[in-house]
Amino acid sequence: MNCQELMDKISDYIDKEVDPNLCREIEEHIEDCEPCWAFVNTLKKTIQMFEGYAQQSHDIPEPVSRSLQSFLRKNLK
Question: What is the DSSP letter of 15?
Answer without folding.
Answer: T
